[in-house]
Amino acid sequence: MSVEASSNFSAAVPSNSLGPLRQIDAGLLNVGYVDIGPSEGPVVVLLHGWPYDIHSYVEVCPQLVDAGYRVIVPYLRGYGTTRFLSNETFRNGEQAVLAVDVIALMDALEIERAIVAGFDWGARTADIVAALWPERCAGLVSVSGYLIVNLAANQKPLPPKAELGWWYQHYFSTERGRLGYSQNRREFNKLIWQIASPKWDFGDATFERTAASFDNPDHVDIVIHNYRWRLSLAEGEPQYRDLEARLFERPVITAPTVTIGSDFDGAAADGRAYADKFSGAYSHRVLDGIGHNVPQEAPGAFTDAILEVGGGLP
User: Fold this and answer.
1) pLDDT tens-digit readout, 285-307
2) Which of 255, 265, 308 is nearest to 126 (CA)?
3) Are 273 and 131 in contact (CB under 8 A)?
């Protein structure tokens, strides 16, 4: 196990307002992460999505620390200071591997159980941790609810208006899309922020603080593989097939859970479409006027959801 300060990565991430960045070898990665709060407190792992980073939790973290939690916020593979340990490792973005990364990080940090919370890729990853490793998951907070992908179901076309919302996924399926994203990732991702959260008046400094994480040398490979895999245009790796097969069965999640719907979710914001996928203590809330980046747009509501899960739910 290797832990080091973040000074070696200062060029990649020039500032961080969450706390000192740490690095640790975990599984296939050297993971960049923040670890704040009392070392003996109950643990919360906060997972970001695309195209975001750990700073989505900049206002959530101090609230959780004040409530007595130890808070772990890692950069996902392909973001910030997280790096692959080997140049030979395939840059895989399929859904199961992101959850395997979380379990490897928990193992490296000697964390047996944690509340796992996230949005976008982070919500899907949190769902998977809860579904496949229930003994490691003390509770779950998932924006947009149950996001585990079934590749066969993903082959079914959506109504045209719904397909329009996935324009970037189709763009990424082309080599022009890969090149365009690589050359224009800042402009591209700022546009995604604006589309996904039209009422969020974020400033340039807020965006640029996160945009530095897209300079990770593996970022484009991970993003492109993730979206191509979802459309069955790119293969996963054989060692994860059994995990994916279990996920394709849409397993029920037993951990205490709060799901959150927002304006981004449209008609699905009420949570009815996936409520039956959670068999433990469960509640759902809808945040009107809030876009996709819930923890940064509504940090108090996101924190309250975690505290509700930590308290065992009503």
Assistant:
1) 999 999 999 999 999 999 999 99
2) 255
3) no
